[in-house]
Inverse folding.
């Protein structure tokens, strides 16, 4: 059986059932409207107390089951579309072929034109403009769950974190579904409200009847591959509640006797990060992969969790290698992570800004990085990322100012030293570049970029023999480093 989405007219397939009536939930592939089909075969079966005999009973049953829908179809000999506008149910009759009679979807739901316009803008990555449309949708239809969800999505993509959290709160209040609780929990985690995050994710898990991967199309590099239980466990660890995290892991059957949790690697539904964190909680000395996981998390921008792991590695260094492990941990903490616990809000704003840069939206990224700095002025990564944006636009003097500020805030941060040296090289300020790059290379002697930049600077300063040696080291570490525009190819 096929009908049409009342918002965009896309054909939607509804499978025939062998019972007198049944509920089927679908999502429109075109506009993402959440649709519920209440199907009843007329005359074949008698209605029972649990099976709706009319669309009125059907909508009541759907609401009792906690189904949130943009539209509910009740199909007997014809179709009736039921939508919710404010607190009233409004009806549009349809023919058996699914064509709407008088009464367009916009007349049923005053938010629809704004939702449609906002979706189009989201698809074009015009997040600020989309947010304005979704704000209008909420004003026109305050009880529209899709309006609140889409407002939250647009707001979080441009770093309007408080507005996003408020939007997801309203969505849960109107429709306490598993999906809506998950959105609220994920946003609460990103903003640093850990108790709300944990409670919301638990509520989402309790309402979910099957294991489903957690996905975020915008920040997919961070949550893809994680299941909801997996994500909840990571949030519990990050919140500092180790006892609750371990109890939850046991309830999922993850705690088992293994030689090392580093060899018990992630399955289809359990990430490697989760197994590493399990090892950290249960047998930290034997969990040799923790350092690697901390490095990966740092690269993703999850500096809080990376710092927590690095400090745990330092505390639980094996007896036969205490000095080496602690020295390596100190080096990592000093030069590659912030020296303090960064507020979650600042961390997440940095991730949002990075994603906007990847999408080639520098103006929006600049605004978000400035918010990250305001959230934690002692977190140098925001200054450094602003420098990178301006450098990408070849505004090297502005980039120089921001890189300098990053080094002022965290004088031992490797990336800031490297970038400051590089921008001075581009500005032909070779003396200043030399100071930063020598320190950067001393911190990270296995990074080919540092040697390449330093080699170029030394050659420009007339110290060619030293410069060539640095260039040779860079090529040995990474042969492809010759492709850098700063690399003097005729010297090696």
């Amino acid at each position: 059986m096929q009908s049409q989405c009342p918002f965009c007219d896309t054909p939607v397939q509804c499978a025939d059932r062998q019972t007198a009536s049944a509920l089927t939930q679908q999502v429109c592939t075109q506009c993402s409207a959440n649709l519920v089909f209440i199907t009843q075969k007329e005359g074949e079966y008698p209605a029972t107390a649990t099976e709706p005999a009319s669309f009125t009973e059907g909508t009541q049953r759907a609401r009792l089951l906690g189904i949130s829908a943009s539209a509910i179809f009740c199909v007997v000999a014809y179709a009736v579309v039921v939508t919710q506008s404010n607190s009233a149910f409004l009806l549009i009759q349809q023919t058996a072929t699914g064509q709407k009679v008088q009464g367009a979807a916009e007349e049923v739901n005053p938010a629809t034109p704004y939702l449609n316009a906002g979706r189009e803008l989201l698809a074009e990555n015009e997040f600020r403009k989309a947010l304005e449309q979704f704000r209008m949708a909420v004003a026109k239809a305050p009880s529209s769950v899709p309006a609140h969800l889409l407002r939250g999505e647009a707001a979080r993509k441009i770093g309007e974190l408080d507005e996003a959290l408020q939007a997801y709160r309203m969505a849960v209040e109107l429709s306490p579904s598993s999906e809506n609780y998950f959105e609220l929990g994920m946003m609460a985690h990103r903003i640093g409200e850990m108790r709300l995050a944990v409670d919301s994710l638990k509520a989402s898990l309790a309402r979910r009847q099957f294991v489903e991967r957690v996905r975020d199309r915008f920040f997919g590099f961070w949550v893809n591959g994680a299941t909801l239980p997996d994500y909840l466990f990571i949030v519990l660890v990050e919140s500092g509640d180790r006892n609750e995290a371990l109890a939850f892991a046991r309830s999922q059957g993850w705690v088992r006797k293994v030689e090392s949790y580093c060899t018990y690697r992630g399955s289809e539904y359990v990430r490697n990060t989760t197994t590493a964190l399990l090892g950290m909680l249960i047998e930290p000395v034997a969990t040799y992969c923790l350092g690697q996981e901390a490095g990966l998390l740092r690269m993703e921008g999850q500096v809080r969790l990376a710092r927590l792991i690095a400090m745990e590695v330092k505390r639980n260094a094996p007896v036969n290698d205490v000095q080496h492990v602690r020295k390596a941990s100190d080096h990592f903490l000093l030069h590659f992570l912030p020296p303090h616990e960064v507020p979650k809000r600042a961390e997440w704003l940095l991730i949002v800004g990075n994603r906007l840069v990847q999408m080639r939206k520098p103006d929006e990224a600049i605004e978000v990085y400035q918010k990250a700095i305001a959230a934690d002025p002692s977190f140098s990564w925001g200054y450094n990322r602003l420098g990178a944006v301006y450098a990408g636009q070849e505004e090297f003097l502005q980039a120089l100012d921001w890189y300098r500020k990053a080094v002022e805030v965290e004088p031992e941060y490797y990336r800031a030293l490297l970038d400051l040296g590089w921008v001075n090289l581009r500005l032909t300020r070779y003396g200043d570049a030399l100071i930063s790059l020598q320190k950067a290379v001393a911190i990270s002697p296995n990074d080919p970029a540092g040697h390449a930049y330093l080699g170029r600077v030394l050659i420009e300063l007339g110290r060619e023999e030293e410069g060539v040696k640095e260039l040779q080291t860079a090529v040995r570490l990474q042969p492809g480093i010759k492709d850098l525009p700063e690399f003097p190819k005729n010297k090696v």
Summary: Residues 26 and 184 are 22 Å apart (CA to CA).
